Amino acid sequence: MTAYAFNSTNFPSPSQEILQLSISDIIADFETYAYRDQPNQEKVVEYQQLLDDLPPLDVFQVDGSCILVGGFHRLEAHNSQVEN
């Protein structure tokens, strides 16, 4: 999975690079980091049809961890596609 990675050590002017990450390397805690109450399942289904055309996820690199801060629906669409 491709992600834009922002280095937290330079925040609020983070450096940005594009990384190829394994899904298992991404910490995706929807309840903590998302600004919605719950994922929109209609959006997840829509994104499943567009996986190759979606932009990279947004992650912050914090103490060696990659925390998802944008792209929860894209990640869920990818996870759902892999499970099928």
Strand runs, count: 5
Shape: globular
| Strand percentage | 25-35%
Question: Which secondary-structure class do the elements indicate?
Answer: alpha/beta
Q: If helices are DSSP runs of H or I spanning 4 or more residues, what is the number of helices?
A: 3
How many separate domains make up the residues?
1
- Helix and strand pattern: EEEHHEEH
Give the low-pLDDT segments.
none
CA(first)-CA(last) distance: 17 Å
Main sheet, how many strands, which sense, barrel? 5 strands, mixed
Average pLDDT rating: 80
The helix content is: 25-40%
Return Rg in Å.
Answer: 13 Å
List the strand order in the largest sheet. 2-1-4-5-3
Structure description:
This protein has helices at 30-33, 41-48, 72-83, and strands spanning 2-7, 16-20, 26-27, 57-62, 65-70. The protein has one domain (2-83). By secondary structure, the chain is an alpha/beta fold. It is globular, with a radius of gyration of 13 Å. The protein is 29% helix and 30% strand. The relative contact order is 0.27. A hairpin with an 8-residue loop joins strand 1 and strand 2 (16-20). The protein has three helices and five strands, in the order E-E-E-H-H-E-E-H. A five-stranded mixed β-sheet has the order 2-1-4-5-3.
